[in-house]
Amino acid sequence: xxxxxxxxxxxxxxxxxxxxxxxxxxxxxxxxxxxxxxxxxxxxxxxxxxxxxxxxxxxxxxxxxxxxxxxxxxxxxxxxxxxxxxxxxxxxxxxxxxxxxxxxxxxxxxxxxxxxxxxxxxxxxxxxxxxxxxxxxxxxxxxxxxxxxxxxxxxxxxxxxxxxxxxxxxxxxxxxxxxxxxxxxxxxxxxxxxxxxxxxxxxxxxxxxxxxxxxxxxxxxxxxxxxxxxxxxxxxxxxxxxxxxxxxxxxxxxxxxxxxxxxxxxxxxxxxxxxxxxxxxxxxxxxxxxxxxxxxxxxxxxxxxxxxxxxxxxxxxxxxxxxxxxxxxxxxxxxxxxxxxxxxxxxxxxxxxxxxxxxxxxxxxxxxxxxxxxxxxxxxxxxxxxxxxxxxxxxxxxxxxxxxxxxxxxxxxxxxxxxxxxxxxxxxxxxxxxxxxxxxxxxxxxxxxxxx
Length: 452
Fold this sequence. Notes:
Elements: E1 4-8, H1 19-26, E2 31-34, H2 39-51, H3 59-74, E3 79-82, H4 89-102, E4 110-114, H5 122-127, E5 148-153, H6 158-165, E6 170-173, H7 180-190, H8 199-212, E7 239-242, E8 248-251, H9 262-269, E9 279-280, E10 285-287, E11 292-297, E12 300-304, E13 307-309, E14 314-334, H10 338-355, E15 362-368, E16 385-394, H11 397-403, H12 410-413, E17 418-419, E18 429-440, E19 447-450
Parallel strand pairs: 1-2, 2-3, 3-6, 4-6
Antiparallel strand pairs: 1-7, 4-19, 5-14, 7-8, 8-12, 9-10, 10-13, 11-12, 14-16, 14-17, 14-18, 15-16
Helix pairs in contact: 1-3, 3-4, 6-7, 7-8
């Protein structure tokens, strides 16, 4: 069987808007995947849906449909798989279907994968023994139940496979494991099963999906060797070519910027990985210590030797809950002794806040340009300017609101060389905290619907 070419044109909601179109146009793909969801994104989408039941999905994907439709007309075999559905996959799918019809692709079939959203079942689950203990602290979810915003299980590749087997050209999911966007099409195309016999192939598809899920990170983005000659201004987004046995090549569109080499692939393989020997997904436990990487040509890295272990009986659950308010503001402090003046200015802001009767639960003073990101390493010379950043968090919005009023006064009542205040008061934002948990797979029912 010929290798399957899958390209990922989006690593998060807010990624480069032109990347999906360029990748679909130039990548000669069988599948284009688009990965939009992070833990924080789900809480934002949940609040959007609370305010307007028709929202709650990544609207950027809907806006892409018209230009993508032009590519799909030229490449009729191209299929799209995305988790842009967020908290409202069906609402997203209905909008996409209308855009496709308007673009002359009324025959395109859109499938929806749901079942990951557990928030409406939360009390039922807690009452039946699914305590959703915090993975790190062991604390039961009851302690923050009244502040929960979203509860989503990370589904696997099987419902995506089902959607493609049902004839879908576009598959829109809610929360699934990031690598499932790649593994789902591979299981469909190659007939891989979710059994012991195919564990190594499932692991290979998972490693492939992990390598491309963050977009340009595997093609030169944030690569430790990146420089002007890397041409990140025209960076190509990643493509994986996978054969029936699970061997695959990471590459990018010919002529695009960026680079694919041993280093870029090796660095991305360890991104967001706690234990390389056991990378847990709903479909397989992949061993990231076994793959062998080999450069076989310009911007082509072969990966082989992936091994897998049976999956667990649980899904990971991403829970977001309200956890107070925060704000962060900056000022530029210039001139002689800028570091000392900036540090003192931060103390003045917090001291004046306390004088007003407000003591935030948490506060942070950072001096950008004076080693803020390298604790314990003092600058070699006294810099001529630094950026003062002060942030607070508190359960009371009133505390944070008052904090935002303490920056501008330093321009006339602070230390000499204070500037950079013209953007106005810092914005007050609600804090959403992350609560990771596990739930028995038997308590979650993935659903696949093909829109007619």
